[in-house]
Amino acid sequence: xxxxxxxxxxxxxxxxxxxxxxxxxxxxxxxxxxxxxxxxxxxxxxxxxxxxxxxxxxxxxxxxxxxxxxxxxxxxxxxxxxxxxxxxxxxxxxxxxxxxxxxxxxxxxxxxxxxxxxxxxxxxxxxxxxxxxxxxxxxxxxxxxxxxxxxxxxxxxxxxxxxxxxxxxxxxxxxxxxxxxxxxxxxxxxxxxxxxxxxxxxxxxxxxxxxxxxxxxxxxxxxxxxxx
Amino acid sequence: xxxxxxxxxxxxxxxxxxxxxxxxxxxxxxxxxxxxxxxxxxxxxxxxxxxxxxxxxxxxxxxxxxxxxxxxxxxxxxxxxxxxxxxxxxxxxxxxxxxxxxxxxxxxxxxxxxxxxxxxxxxxxxxxxxxxxxxxxxxxxxxxxxxxxxxxxxxxxxxxxxxxxxxxxxxxxxxxxxxxxxxxxxxxxxxxxxxxxxxxxxxxxxxxxxxxxxxxxxxxxxxxxxxx
Amino acid sequence: xxxxxxxxxxxxxxxxxxxxxxxxxxxxxxxxxxxxxxxxxxxxxxxxxxxxxxxxxxxxxxxxxxxxxxxxxxxxxxxxxxxxxxxxxxxxxxxxxxxxxxxxxxxxxxxxxxxxxxxxxxxxxxxxxxxxxxxxxxxxxxxxxxxxxxxxxxxxxxxxxxxxxxxxxxxxxxxxxxxxxxxxxxxxxxxxxxxxxxxxxxxxxxxxxxxxxxxxxxxxxxxxxxxx
Amino acid sequence: xxxxxxxxxxxxxxxxxxxxxxxxxxxxxxxxxxxxxxxxxxxxxxxxxxxxxxxxxxxxxxxxxxxxxxxxxxxxxxxxxxxxxxxxxxxxxxxxxxxxxxxxxxxxxxxxxxxxxxxxxxxxxxxxxxxxxxxxxxxxxxxxxxxxxxxxxxxxxxxxxxxxxxxxxxxxxxxxxxxxxxxxxxxxxxxxxxxxxxxxxxxxxxxxxxxxxxxxxxxxxxxxxxxx
Amino acid sequence: xxxxxxxxxxxxxxxxxxxxxxxxxxxxxxxxxxxxxxxxxxxxxxxxxxxxxxxxxxxxxxxxxxxxxxxxxxxxxxxxxxxxxxxxxxxxxxxxxxxxxxxxxxxxxxxxxxxxxxxxxxxxxxxxxxxxxxxxxxxxxxxxxxxxxxxxxxxxxxxxxxxxxxxxxxxxxxxxxxxxxxxxxxxxxxxxxxxxxxxxxxxxxxxxxxxxxxxxxxxxxxxxxxxx
Amino acid sequence: xxxxxxxxxxxxxxxxxxxxxxxxxxxxxxxxxxxxxxxxxxxxxxxxxxxxxxxxxxxxxxxxxxxxxxxxxxxxxxxxxxxxxxxxxxxxxxxxxxxxxxxxxxxxxxxxxxxxxxxxxxxxxxxxxxxxxxxxxxxxxxxxxxxxxxxxxxxxxxxxxxxxxxxxxxxxxxxxxxxxxxxxxxxxxxxxxxxxxxxxxxxxxxxxxxxxxxxxxxxxxxxxxxxx
Lengths: 228, 228, 228, 228, 228, 228
Hints:
Six copies of one chain form a homohexamer. Chain A is mainly alpha-helical. Chain A has helices spanning 2-10, 18-30, 41-60, 95-116, 124-139, 173-200, 202-215, 220-225, and strands at residues 67-71, 81-84, 159-160, 163-164, 217-219. In chain A, helix 1 packs across helix 2 (18-30). Chain A starts with a helix and ends with a helix. Chains in contact: A-B, A-D, B-C, C-E, D-F, E-F. The interface between B and C is medium-sized, with 30 and 39 residues.
């Protein structure tokens, strides 16, 4: 609300309208827009295909949250972004939902590989989030059959000189190796799924990317109409 | 008593009645009720079967404490809860009692797997408690024949900058591997037992879950009458 | 002396008598009596057999210190206690004395296993002390032929933020594994000895335990007369 | 700008000209010039070939940024320097660009080995930067097919008593070994490429080095004209 | 000098005589005498043979420093002591001198094993010193052919919150294992040598021990006359 | 200059002459002379051969810096010293120069072994410096073909409570083992070279050592004339 009020004030509006609220939510999630930043045409192509990869994969996975907006306008550290809004506010999450999330996170890197035959640093944050999620599935949620319904590592809430130390290892090298192996398997399966979806829907991937290059942003209605 | 007095005061009662005491105990154990929280029908189904799983397994294990109440009203971080009250206040606990506790803790996850063919994040806290208990059986209580009547790790009472460091490893990787393996075995056996009980009593599981969806809470009398 | 003076003062005595001294020594060693604690009959049986196990094993081992008192009255954290008084104040201790101490410490757990075919948490402190003693034999006193006349680990006298860090590992995983293996062997041998003694003297074990249930405490004279 | 203003002031100029700006940028990147330092003729030969190695390799790799200046005037800790200016300010970097950077970084050491049949300490900083880059490719950017599209290690932003702890290992020895192996492979491949380029263009290497010994510095125009 | 002055003052002497100096030196090295301590006859026998073991072994090793005094009067933590005085103040020490020192340090434990067929805690400090010396030979003085003329571990002079952290490991598990193995070999060889000397000179061992039991202390002259 | 001024002042000189400067440089490098220290004839022999070993090996290695002075006068912790002065102030060092430095550092220990058939603690500091140099060659300068042109370990400039922590391990056990193995190989090769040189020039070794015993110090001119 605060962010929305600030935006409205900047625009000399007396009331805060939905436009301000929507922008405020996006700003908080993805950082402020950085319109001034100059990117090369080649970068624009990469970012457009990267975001198109995320969006297309999410659209194709029945378990994914619906795509709310796709954009190649830089926000914070990211060159572009794909926003989803969960249909309902869930407290519980199924393993298959997490698996779909992994596929969605890896859709950007998969698109780069398929389209440009090379990969960039653009997926770094996606890979970090995917790795953390896969790790949590194995160590916190007992979702790996190989590791079983156990938890691994002691989470510390300790603020040690201003930092939260997140995990204490309390298991053997053998189990550490099994955890690494399962995390790797989850990521590999998700990445293969993402590549298969994008290869199968290669024309649609190009279509979304080209529209992004032209229009910079595609909202939910426009995005869904491309699949009508 | 303090919590009960507060509740009585809120209700303009002159004396603290048993109703207040009962609520106060539950509140302290499971956190305050969160009636306002909206959950989807699907989540209600999951939570109902999860709690029914706990309760049914505990009922079937002769070593378990008797079930006092089953509920799908959220408390604290939990979506629902199953309360037990030990018949007597024991200072000593048998290994078979601990094994029954493990089965009870894993009953919720087992029910999810059997009924929905998928598993959720809802069991995370159960898995953490089960892992800790199994670990304590092996490392503190000498209850693993494979590891023998020894203790492993030095417990520290140290409060280091506000945190209790709970364990110092003072054993080899080889022993760490054996401990992991035994903890895994205890959890696996308990999980198989939970699944076997629930599969054998599948109709009763459905009955309890459906009643929970309808009535939200089942007390000890009502619960036991279902097995009459 | 201080404790004895306090006890005498509480009883309005002008002089501190031996009764006060005896009680004071026990209180310091085992914590104050907790007569008010209610235990179930089943727990009484377990504790009685557990303490009878300690006492009987110690009586049968020629190297053990003589039993001074056996009791099932709770003191501090312990459900009961078996006190010994060394005949002379030794500065040096033989390996065979340490081995007898291990057998004595494990007598309680051994009795539980033999009599109740299950084991409880009651032996937790015994196991911790036995493990520490066996570890010291191997790492501080060079009493393991497999590890040889060396010491392992650097003992630190450091008080780090109020805690004594007791050991720094300065050896390889290979040696850590050998130490674990030797500690395990010492404990296993002592436990087998304890079980053999108790099995051979099963009737005497029952007799001591039953008398403990009846009389709660057996002093040295009464205890020794049972073996006359 | 600040540095340029200082330089202009020292020269009693009223305006800051491009000469000042260019020098300021170089000073910030490579440290102030150290003209007073005396080096032996042998060292001059080594440094000249070392920098010629960097520059020639970068020229030959299509993915490298264009060479802006090559110099054997000492700056900061370095005996000489080779500056590149990226044609455009990229936010995303391709794996093939990183691979070309590795080859460029190792060009100096490769030249030493080829020309002098021995290697010096002069490449120490190059090797450190190449190792860090190869490590980041594997652990942060998911650019190793052997390790997959995952990230490894938790980066800490923590300033602990004035220092940034850069990485917490959260993986097994097995993965640590694979990371080391992949980092090694990336470096080895780049080093082979650098040596192959320099061997193939040995005459050009000598030509650049000799010109550096004569003129100390070669700017972009002069450098490129050598390949006309 | 200070200690000697205190002793002289206590005895109302005007000058500090050699008697005071000698006592002062011993007190500083071995702690004050504890004549009041009561030990059993059995302990007296053990301590006498333990010290006789040290003294006899040192006498028989040509590389050992000459024995200055043997005593079974307790000093500090030790039940007895054997003092040697190096003939000259050496700055350099040969490997063979260190090897002789190891044999001397282990002479006490060896005597216990040979005479009493069991071992006691009395050798704990000897074993610790022997282990440290053997470790220093391997890691600081490069005296192990298997490990070579290298040093291992970084010694820290750091006083961290009042404690000196003595060693940082900077080598692999493989080297740690080799160091342990070499330290073990040095100790084992020294212990075998000590046992061989004592077995060969068993009568002399008994003679020294019996004289210690009778006279409590044997000085250098008396000790050497036993070998005339 | 400061040290030289102090020396001149002590000698009631008005100007600081070269004698003072020379002494000041030596004092800073090797610590003040300790003429008062008494050493045995045997130690004098060892130190003389040890220093002769250093000097002779350095003379024979074409890559070594020229010997400036050899002395058996104790300075600081060292029993004697061999000083070299590099012909020119090099910023870059070749691998072959480092290898020669390793041989020079190990010349003292090698002489002890050849002449006395035993080794002493006198080489401890040489071994530490040789190990550090060999380690730096492998981990900082990429001079091991087995480990490749990489750097290993993160150097920290951190002053943690008054101490510099010099290295953070950021590699696997496998690499740690390879580093240890390469460091060992470099030291072993250098030690073999030192022994070969000294064995081949055994008469010269004796000649230098005997002159050191007679004259205590040999300067560059005298030293080089021995090889005329």
